Amino acid sequence: MRVPGLQVILFLLLAVLSGDPAQAQQAPAVIVVPAKVIDLRESADFTGRLVAIQKVDIRARVSGFLESINFSEGQKVTAGTLLYKVEDGTYAAAVQEIEGSIQAAQAQLNLAVIERDRSVRLLASNTAPQSQVDIAKAQVQKAEADLVRLNGAKAQAELNLSYTRITAPFDGVVGLTAVNVGALVGPEAGALTTLTRLDPMYAEFSVATSLLLTYREQVRQGKVSSGANVQIILPNGTIYPSKGTLNFVSSNVSQGTDTVTVRAEFPNPDGLLLDGTLVRVMLEQSDKQEVLAVPQEAVQRDQQGAFVMVVGPDSKVELRRVDISRSTRGQSVVASGLKEGENVITDGVGKVRPGMVVDAAPAAGG
C-alpha cells in the first residue's frame, strides 16, 4: 500500500539537499552609499535679529504751525527730500530785521573810521590831543564788534529759518506721521515720524565665548581659515540670496549669557529685509575643506563607540569601527577607520549582522 504523503516529504527533502534556490533563504536587501571625499566646511547656526543701519526720529528744531506734509507714509525718500514745512513768516522777518541792523552797524563803523582818521591827522598837526585819538579808535573797535555780533545773530536767524524746512538726513523709508497739517510743532513736541535706512542691513547675533575662543585657536593653528561666508534664513524658511560680510565683533562679553555680539552686513536693494526681523544666521568657513564623509544614518553607536556596516566586494557585511570628528548637513566626517569608495549600509542595518551575505543596492541618486 502506497503512502502519498511520504512521496511529498521525500521530494521536499531532495529539493533542499539539492540546493533549490526557491527553497533557500534569501539574502536581506540593504541600501548602501560609498564613502566620498566632499567639500564639507565647518559651519554653525545662530539666532539673530536684523537691525537697520540707520534709524532716526524726525523732530522739529523750531516752533511753529505745520504748513505741509510732503511725503506718503512708507515712501522711499532720498537725502535732502522735504518732509515737513513749518510756517516761516516769523523767522523770515527776524532775518530781515537783523539785516537792517547790520546795515546800520556798517554805517556806524564807517563813521567811526572817518572820525578816527580825522583825529589821527589832527594829532599829527598838534591840533588834537592823544585822548581824542584813543576815543576814536575805541569807537571803531566797538562798531566792528557790533557788526560781528549782528552777523552772528543773522547766521542764527537764517539757521532757524532753514529749520522750518524739515528734510530727510539720509536715504530711507519714512514711517507713519504723528502730526497733521496745522499742528503746533517744536523741539518739545516729540518725534514727527521715523526715517529708516534699509540698505544695507545689519544682522546681529550672539556667539558663545567658548566657541569664539575655540575658533580663534583653530585659526591660529591653521586648521581653519579666518574668513567666513555668512548667510541668513528668513522666517519663512527661505535662504536670503545675497551673502553678507562680518564687520564687527564686540570686545565686551555679556555677563548674563557669556556671549559676544557679532554683526554682519547684507545688501538689501529691494527692501526684502526688514528692521527687527528674527532670522537664523549661518556661518561657513570660506575656504574649501575636503573630507571623507558618509551619511549620518550610516553611523551607529554602542558602548565601544561609533561603527558602520561595510559591504565588501563579496557582498558580505563587516562591522567597522570608525572615528567621527564632526557631523553637519546630514554628513558625518570620518577621521579614521574607512577608505574612500567603501560601501556603508544606510538602510536595513537592523536586518544584518557581521559575516552575513546581503543583497546591496545603491541609494537613489548615489
TrEMBL record:
Q: Where would I find the Multidrug resistance protein MdtA-like barrel-sandwich hybrid domain in this sequence?
A: 55-185
**Coiled coil keyword on record:** yes
Record domain Multidrug resistance protein MdtA-like C-terminal permuted SH3: where: 291-350
Which residue ranges does the record assign to the Multidrug resistance protein MdtA-like alpha-helical hairpin domain?
Answer: 96-164
Subcellular localization is given as: Cell envelope
InterPro entries membership:
MdtA-like_b-barrel, MdtA-like_BSH, MdtA-like_C, MdtA-like_HH, RND_pump_MFP
Q: Does the keyword ATP-binding apply?
A: no
Keywords, alphabetical: Coiled coil, Signal
Coiled coil (residue ranges)? 133-160
Sequence ranges assigned to domain Multidrug resistance protein MdtA-like beta-barrel in this UniProt record: 200-284
Q: Which residues form the signal peptide?
A: 1-24
| Assigned protein family | Belongs to the membrane fusion protein (MFP) (TC 8.A.1) family.
What name has this protein been given in UniProt? Efflux RND transporter periplasmic adaptor subunit
